[in-house]
Write a structure and sequence with these properties.
Layout: E1 3-9, E2 13-20, E3 23-31, H1 38-51, E4 61-66, H2 69-82, E5 88-89, E6 98-99, H3 109-121, E7 126-131, E8 134-140, E9 145-153, H4 155-165, H5 185-212, E10 221-225, H6 229-233, E11 241-242, H7 246-259
Helix pairs in contact: 1-2, 3-7
Length: 260
């Protein structure tokens, strides 16, 4: 039996998934803006393992997908200190699909994992929309070739930037608006960000779907993932399925393939 800790290190959050074989037992989220020590990670991860009935000696592998090199180093050092194995760190070397990119090394590890997981579960062509710190779009054609995509700011980081730069705006959090016409600052902000990002996503998806259907009549599946995917997907006109842990699953699949 394999008990795996899969760690997705993003610019805002670190998502940890604890797997027993191919089943995700539970996920946990911590901030990636904090400078952790090895001992702090030990305390945090010990408590996460305890919540699923596991101990450190039960863990057989720790996997890392990261876009934050400094945190990669900390998790690597933590693993070497507290386990009898080194972590598996996903990189551009693990791209197992064809691409049409100018330079494969520029493809972020999170996007590599997303495409691997999507190809395992769904038939191409498809489009992956990752709604995290950044909003990314990944196009995969019917021949399973990664064509390219786009990167836009994420809804959360954009909201935070506005709060910092606009002196007269009070701190609040993004919520789904209950009206389309804001009569106070809070409602106006929620309308602008919620529907503004929703329309951006739907608009780009429609254009990208035209690219994917140029040479085929196959239906293009639109897969949403990332921290804001469930928040925005319900009102999207283009998103077909939500896979909140697509990156963790791709990381696990890549590890298993390397192990074989």
């Amino acid at each position: 039996m394999e008990n795996i800790i899969a760690v997705e290190i993003g610019n805002t959050n670190v998502v940890l998934g604890i797997y027993r074989n191919d089943s995700l037992l539970r996920s946990f989220r911590i901030s990636s803006t904090k400078c952790y020590t090895k001992d702090e990670l030990y305390v945090l991860i010990s408590s996460f393992l305890e919540k699923v009935g596991l101990k450190f000696q039960d863990v057989t592998a720790l996997l890392i997908s990261s876009v934050v090199p400094s945190l990669t180093d900390i998790f690597f050092a933590f693993t070497k200190s507290y386990f009898s194995f080194e972590p598996f760190v996903l990189s551009s070397k693990d791209i197992s699909f064809k691409t049409a990119l100018d330079n494969e090394k520029e493809l972020g590890e999170d996007r590599v994992a997303n495409v691997i997981a999507a190809l395992e579960k769904y038939s191409p062509p498809f489009l992956i929309v990752d709604l995290g710190t950044a909003t990314t779009f990944c196009l995969v054609d019917e021949k399973s070739t990664y064509l390219g995509g786009a990167i836009a700011p994420g809804i959360g980081i954009s909201f935070e930037a506005l709060m910092k730069k606009a002196a007269r705006l009070n701190e609040t959090k993004i919520e789904k608006p209950t009206t389309l016409l804001g009569k106070n600052t809070k409602d106006s902000l929620n309308i602008g960000f919620y529907y503004g990002f929703l329309k951006m996503v739907d608009g780009l998806v429609i254009q990208f779907k035209e690219i994917l259907t140029m040479n085929t009549k196959s239906k293009v599946l639109v897969i949403a993932t990332g921290g804001f995917s469930e928040f925005l997907a319900k009102d999207s006109l283009t998103i077909d399925v939500v896979e909140p842990f697509l990156t963790l699953e791709g990381l696990r699949l890549c590890y298993l393939r390397n192990k074989k």
